[in-house]
Amino acid sequence: MMNTAETLPYLSSAVLDRLAISTPNVVDEIERQIVGQRRGEVWCAPKAAVWPGDDRYFMATLGVATVPPVLATKSLVVNPRNAARGLATLNSLITLLDAETGLPLALVDGNWVTAKRTAGLSAVAARRMARHDASSVAFIGCGVQARGHLEAFADLFPLREIRAFGRGKSNRDALCEMARSRGLQAIPCDTARAAVEGADMVVSTVTLVPEPEPFLDANWLKPGSFTAITDLALPWLPATMRRLDRIVVDDLEQERNMTKPMVDPAMVAGDLTGLVCGDFAGRQSPGETTAFVFRGLAVGDLAVAGLVYLRARVAGVVGV
């Protein structure tokens, strides 16, 4: 079937939710495509970003897979002024093309994919870097990304408790309610330190626009804990990051192309591809304090978008 502009299917968040794709499905597919990069079967460009200086942020990713043969591009806009318009701060769209012919296949809700792939990338790292008996997680930032991480980590670890700290009370309360609906104890915290201290895992998803002043101290982290840092480590006090025994970033090459590294390159053990392919251990002892710091990878968007497209075809949502 050849799609045209008039017939191009749009996979909305409502459609994607109905596909019932599980956390292990997402994590396994991201890992498979990461290995595909190492094998020369998947190709991704470093993410492109533009900061016009008025609190807006523009970003784009590009990835191509052999199986399924798709090209995925994501365009994303972050604008804090959207809140006053009653709109989400972040909005994005993924375009899927046939990787052989270049013909269009589908448009996909980028916000849904972004939430799934970000939590999925964290989960890929957590599988190897967190203790398998981790039962508590602290959330610094309680928005969409926090909810995605709660869903993923609750599926993969024996969670019993979450702690939540964020600027917006409504988001914090919603995250706590989501945790309680899954049978977890949820503790709203008045300070970041109260949330972080003693937690087996920490997830920081602080909004980047406007750029936050550092306020998180890695010395608060419990020995043996794992931290997923999705916010470029901007909210973390740089001098305290030496507290961490092992830091992994998403892509060493991507970091080399950035004007400002997320953390001191001398402190980085390797990247996600090396971790997944077994080049080094994610954790060497139960007491090791580990962290995954990442900008976001095109391979994550590619993996999730390709997965949902195949599932939508099987479900008859899009034509074959």
Structural class: alpha/beta
CATH architecture of the largest domain: 3-Layer(aba) Sandwich
DSSP helical segment count: 9
- The span between the termini is 6 Å
CATH superfamily of the largest domain: NAD(P)-binding Rossmann-like Domain
CATH level 1 class label of the largest domain: Alpha Beta
Order of strands side by side in the largest beta sheet? 9-8-7-10-11-14-12-13
Largest sheet: 8 strands, parallel
Model regions low in confidence, pLDDT < 50 over at least 5 residues:
none
The number of domains is 2
List the helices and strands and how they pair.
Layout: E1 10-11, H1 13-18, H2 23-39, E2 42-50, E3 57-65, E4 70-78, E5 90-98, E6 104-109, H3 110-129, E7 136-140, H4 144-156, E8 161-165, H5 169-181, E9 185-188, H6 192-196, E10 201-204, E11 226-229, E12 246-249, H7 252-256, E13 268-271, H8 272-276, E14 290-293, H9 298-314
Parallel strand pairs: 1-6, 7-8, 7-10, 8-9, 10-11, 11-14, 12-13, 12-14
Antiparallel strand pairs: 2-3, 3-4, 4-5, 5-6
Helix pairs in contact: 2-3, 2-9, 3-4, 3-9
Q: Can you characterise this structure?
A:
With 320 residues, the chain is α/β, with parallel strands linked by helices. The protein has 2 domains: 120 residues, ornithine cyclodeaminase, domain 1, CATH 3.30.1780; 165 residues, Rossmann fold. It is 32% helix and 24% strand. It has 9 helices and 14 strands. The strands form 2 sheets. An 8-stranded parallel beta sheet has the order 9-8-7-10-11-14-12-13. It has a 6-stranded mixed beta sheet with strand order 1-6-5-4-3-2. β12, α7 and β13 form a beta-alpha-beta unit. The protein is globular.
